[in-house]
Amino acid sequence: MPDDLYQRYQAAHRAWQAHTATCTSCTSDGPNCPAGARSFEGFARLQDVYLTRLNQRLRR
């Protein structure tokens, strides 16, 4: 079963994808509206935390 951080990271990714699918200002490469910026920043932050933790686990 995936851990909570992974699930939150994936949920943030899905939210970002859903936003870019409906927003005419944002692209898949980056946000161009306030709502998109919040969504993308949340996704990016969770991705960074998840990948950092994964990297630390692999180095053990």
In short:
α1 (4-22) runs antiparallel to α2. It contains two helices and no strands. Helices cover 75% and strands 0% of the residues.
Radius of gyration: 13 Å
Report how far the terminal alpha carbons are from each other.
21 Å
- The backbone outline, from C-alpha atoms, is elongated
- Which stretches of 5+ consecutive residues score pLDDT under 50? none
User: Which percent range describes the beta-strand content?
Assistant: under 5%
Largest beta-sheet characterization: none
Number of strands: 0
Helical content (DSSP H or I, runs of 4+): over 70%
Order of helices and strands: HH
Overall mean pLDDT score? 92
Q: What structural class results from the helix and strand content? A: mainly alpha
Alpha plus pi helix count? 2
List strands and helices in order, with pairings.
Elements: H1 4-22, H2 34-59
What features would you describe in this structure?
It is built from 2 helices and no strands. The protein is elongated. Helix 1 (about 5-20) packs antiparallel against helix 2. It is mostly helical.
Short key terms for the protein model shown above:
60 residues; mainly alpha; single chain; 75% helix
